[in-house]
Amino acid sequence: MKRFIPFLVFIALAVFLYLGLYLNPREVPSPFIGKPAPDFRLPVIGEPGRMFSPQEARGRVWLLNVWAPWCVSCRQEHPMLMQLKAAGVAIYGLNWKDKDGEAAALLARQGNPYVLTVDDRDGRVGIDYGVTGTPETFVIDKGGVIRMKHVGPITPQVWEKKFAPLMKELDA
User: Fold this and answer.
1) Is 45 helix (H, G, I), strand (E, B) or coil?
2) What is the pTM of this model?
3) 117-120 and 42-43 strand pairing
4) Model confidence pLDDT, tens digit, residues 6-61
5) Which helix (H) or strand (E) holds 43?
6) SS3 126
7) What are the chain's domains?
8) DSSP-assigned letters across all residues of 128-172
9) Which one of 22, 74, 91, 164 counts the least CB within 10 Å of its CB?
């Protein structure tokens, strides 16, 4: 019996590796799904003296888009976010680790897809949300619970496949 143990371990490992071939590496599971969105209070970019907390967005389904002016993928995502804003989607921006304070100027030049953008200069709020890079987008329901995390830019295909059905369900 002892000589079959290495063979059984090999078979188990082979099964796990085989199943891993069919997983999407861009789908990062988040331990926050189904849990209340971490609370924070950060300054709003372009509105001196104003602070924002996610509690202010309660009662509506909204997106928290984590982005940065230095992020190339965020710039690729920007036109799609502008389309979503035009369609009435509530998107709040979390400007992550923008040490140079370039966000306001960039949004003035390129257009602002956000209801508002807060400045997470030291990245602490991003850490609370489990952010690993930019862009990342969270869907937050009317009760303030995270329902989805998407890593990478939102494209029209991603919006139609992942976001739109969930947003429709949560808005009902």
Assistant:
1) coil
2) 0.84
3) unpaired
4) 777 778 777 777 766 766 655 556 778 999 999 999 999 999 999 999 999 999 99
5) strand 42-43
6) helix
7) 28-171 (3.40.30.10)
8) HTT--SSSEEEEE-TTSBEEEEEES---HHHIIIIIHHHHHHHH-
9) 22
